[in-house]
């Protein structure tokens, strides 16, 4: 394992050295004007392929927070910005990486990652939106893709590995960072050559600000967040937060952002966007990313006692979540019922209540809550995922399968459904079906090799049913063609 990796790294490092040289040249060439794609040698399809491959590698090296409620929230916030950006047709995927450094990054093809620690350091939804708008602008302006134009002879995995090395930067303190992290270490000096240029950063700030305002967020959030980052960086000493090492915050940058905000906002026309969901998801993230369950309970309890919180409801919600996670279902229930008294149909609260009843072993009560919630929010992905998980825990795999099957629609945003379907089938003893769903799961997270393996297992398990076997074989052929097609491109 180690040897193979070491070999790969030395091959790739050689590639990077070559690549860095061509980039130094590229920097001397004038970059095309904004929006001018005439000089581009990299196609949108290539960008998308690099992005997909980057995501596949990323899945192996970092933890992506797959909580459907948080993911849905981030995706909807992102799309409110995209709808007001300079390229509304571009497809985007927004996701959160569990990481204790402050960072955000954007890969070709519209893959925008935000570190959990960055979100924990925001104080308003507009601050988070400001960072995302900046990253969206890097994508719509094809900044990273342009850096590749000189290096387009690179193979796809190599291009993606370099993207990972650039974007994840010095994230090598973590020895488990895996391939991308080691790549970054090897890339070393080369990476400095291919960081976004200062003019890219300036452009992303400027265009990001326009998007932010058009989408109805507070433009002053951008300088405010930069300012806070600068303060935070003083505590870090010589090692600044990741976002700062790739995005240095200077007095100039803060002043520029403030100036732009003042110039662009004639009359503040902020959308009356309900910020509650931002605060709730921020609390949830705090709970999910903490290792110390008792300490988290204590933190929220103290916040409520002293009134030191950004938002009272979200502090109580975080408290309830922390309590149920620490096993104190009775106190958790009391807290969430208090919130539900004032806000009876709140989706986040109903989900926690159902989660508490499941954890307490009151499955029938939990199922009733889920049914009521599903009636209020029909076809809601998060409700379906949570309800199905609870049904599985309560040993009702048939019901779980029926619920999930109604919702199973292919897509990269709904992969959890396939995973749960595989579990349900497994519990019912249908091994072939279970492997088939797992294959779809792997396929949609970009692990095509694993998907093929699962289909082969399904083929072995299916027995003599001709109809079932031909379905599996057809899908297998499809994926094999796709896999070889990729290798040759
Ligand atoms: Zn940037």
Automatic annotation (TrEMBL):
Q: What GO biological process terms does the UniProt entry carry, in alphabetical order? A: proteolysis involved in protein catabolic process
Aminoacyl-tRNA synthetase recorded as keyword: no
- Summarize where Zn(2+) binds, as residue positions: 134, 138, 201
What would you give as a GO molecular function for this chain, any one? Answer: zinc ion binding
Q: Which domain of life is it from?
A: Bacteria
Q: Where in the cell is it found?
A: Periplasm
Kindly name one Pfam family recorded for this protein: TPR_19
Q: Does the keyword Metal-binding apply?
A: yes
| Broadest EC class assigned to this enzyme | hydrolase
Q: Identify which residues the record assigns to the active site.
A: 135, 205
| Protein family (similarity comment) | Belongs to the peptidase M48 family. BepA subfamily.
The entry's keywords = Hydrolase, Metal-binding, Metalloprotease, Periplasm, Protease, Signal, TPR repeat, Zinc
Q: How is this protein named in the record?
A: Putative beta-barrel assembly-enhancing protease
* Gene Ontology CC: membrane; periplasmic space
Its job: Functions as both a chaperone and a metalloprotease. Maintains the integrity of the outer membrane by promoting either the assembly or the elimination of outer membrane proteins, depending on their folding state.
**Cofactor: binding comment:** Binds 1 zinc ion per subunit.
Give the primary localization class.
Answer: periplasm
The TPR repeat boundaries are 347-380
């Amino acid at each position: 394992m180690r040897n193979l990796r070491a070999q790969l790294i030395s091959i790739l490092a050689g590639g990077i050295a070559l690549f860095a040289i061509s980039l130094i040249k590229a920097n001397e060439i004038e970059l095309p004007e904004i929006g001018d794609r005439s000089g581009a040698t990299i196609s949108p399809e290539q960008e998308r392929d690099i992005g997909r491959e980057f995501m596949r590698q990323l899945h192996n090296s970092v933890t992506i927070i797959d909580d459907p409620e948080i993911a849905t929230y981030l995706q909807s916030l992102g799309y409110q910005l995209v709808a007001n950006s300079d390229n509304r047709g571009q497809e985007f995927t927004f996701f959160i990486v569990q990481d204790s450094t402050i960072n955000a990054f954007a890969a070709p093809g519209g893959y925008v990652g935000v570190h959990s620690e960055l979100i924990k350091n925001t104080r308003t939804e507009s601050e988070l939106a400001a960072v995302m708008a900046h990253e969206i602008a890097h994508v719509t302006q094809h900044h990273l893709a342009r850096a590749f134009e000189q290096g387009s002879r690179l193979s796809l995995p190599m291009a993606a590995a370099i993207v990972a090395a650039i974007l994840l930067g010095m994230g090598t303190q973590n020895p488990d960072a895996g391939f991308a992290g080691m790549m970054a270490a090897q890339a070393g000096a080369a990476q400095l050559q291919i960081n976004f240029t200062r003019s890219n950063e300036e452009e992303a700030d400027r265009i990001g600000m326009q998007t932010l305002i058009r989408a109805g967020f507070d433009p002053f959030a951008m300088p405010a967040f930069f300012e806070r980052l600068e303060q935070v960086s003083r505590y870090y000493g010589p090692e600044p937060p990741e976002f700062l090492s790739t995005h240095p915050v200077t007095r100039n940058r803060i002043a520029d952002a403030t100036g732009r905000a003042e110039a662009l906002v004639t009359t503040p026309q902020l959308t009356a966007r309900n910020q509650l969901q931002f605060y709730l998801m921020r609390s949830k993230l705090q709970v999910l990313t903490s290792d110390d369950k008792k300490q988290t309970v204590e933190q929220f309890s103290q916040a409520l006692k002293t009134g030191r919180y950004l938002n009272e409801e979200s502090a109580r919600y975080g408290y309830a979540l922390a309590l149920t996670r620490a096993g104190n279902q009775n106190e958790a229930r009391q807290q969430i019922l208090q919130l539900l008294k004032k806000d009876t149909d709140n989706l986040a609260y109903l989900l926690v209540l159902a989660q508490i009843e499941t954890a307490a072993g009151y499955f029938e009560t939990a199922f009733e809550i889920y049914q009521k919630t599903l009636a209020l929010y029909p076809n809601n992905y998060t409700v379906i995922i949570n309800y199905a998980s609870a049904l599985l825990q309560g040993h009702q795999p048939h019901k779980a399968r029926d619920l999930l099957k109604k919702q199973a629609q292919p897509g990269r945003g709904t992969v959890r459904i396939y995973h749960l379907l595989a579990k349900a089938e497994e519990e019912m003893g249908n091994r072939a079906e279970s492997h088939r769903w797992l294959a779809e799961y792997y396929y949609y997270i970009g692990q095509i090799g694993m998907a093929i393996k699962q289909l082969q297992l399904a083929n072995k398990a299916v027995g003599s049913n001709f109809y079932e076997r031909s379905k599996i074989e057809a899908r297998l052929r499809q994926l094999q063609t796709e896999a070889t097609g990729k290798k040759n491109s």
